[in-house]
Automatic annotation (TrEMBL):
Pfam families: FCD (PF07729), GntR (PF00392). This is DNA-binding FadR family transcriptional regulator. The keyword Cytoplasm does not apply. Residues 24-94 form the HTH gntR-type domain. Keywords: DNA-binding, Transcription, Transcription regulation. InterPro entries: GntR_C, TF_FadR/GntR_C, Tscrpt_reg_HTH_GntR, WH-like_DNA-bd_sf, WH_DNA-bd_sf. GO terms for molecular function: DNA binding; DNA-binding transcription factor activity. The keyword Transmembrane does not apply.
Amino acid sequence: MATQEPSGAPSALTSSALAAIRRTSAVDTVRARISLAVDLGLLAPGERLPNVQATAAALGVGEITVRRALSTLEREGVVQRRPGRTGGTFIAERPRRRTVAQVAAYREDSERVHRLIDERIVLEAGFAHLAAERLGRPGLDRLDECVREMDAAGSWAEFHASDKRFHLALAEGAGLPSALGMYERITGELYAYFLPYPLDYLRGSNAQHKAIRAALAAQDATSAAALLRDHVAELHHSMYVGFADTAERGEDG
C-alpha cells in the first residue's frame, strides 16, 4: 500500500496543479518560451528556428500548437516567417521584447523549478552510483550513441532530444525500476521549463556527458555520482531561472 504524503508537504509530484505554468495554455507556453529565450539573449536576431516537427518534439507539444504559437509571435513582432526552400521561421532582426504576458508564469514558478532541479540531482547522482556497478556494454553503447548525436546536432531541438535519451539511458542503467517512474515524472515536469539555448553552449555541455560516461566505464561510482551531481546542479544557473536572476540584478543596478 502506498504511503500517503503528509498534508502541507509540497513536492514536484503532488503540487503540479498549483504551478503557474499549469494555468497557461499550450499555445501560450510555446509563445512564452520562445519570447523569454529572446529576452534573455538565448535566441539571437535573425536566428532560424528548427522546423515545426522538431520544435514540437523538443517542447513537448503538438505541431498544431507550435504553428499557432508562431503565427501569434509573428503578429507580435518576435519572429518572421519566410517562404521558399530557404525559408522558415526566424527570430526577427529587431524582435519586440517583453511582449508575451504569459512569460510571468515562468518567473512565478522559479522556486518550483529550483526544487525540481534539486530532486533531479538526488535521483541522478544515485542512479550514476549504481550504474557504475551495473551498466554493461550495451548501456555504454547507448550513451556513446547519444553523445555522438549531441556532437552532430544541427539545432537545439535535436540536441535536447539526444540529451533526454542520454539521461534516461543512464537512469535505466541503474537497474532500479521502482525509482525510474519517479525520475520520469520529475524530469517531465522540469522539461516543461526548458528554453531554446545557443547550440555552441549546448555542445560545450556535452563534454560533461563524456566525462560521466568515462567514469561509468571505469566503474568509478564515486566520480560518476559527483560528475552527474555537478552536471545537473548547473541547471540552477544555466536554466532560465539563473539567466533571469542575472538579468534582473543587472537591471536593478
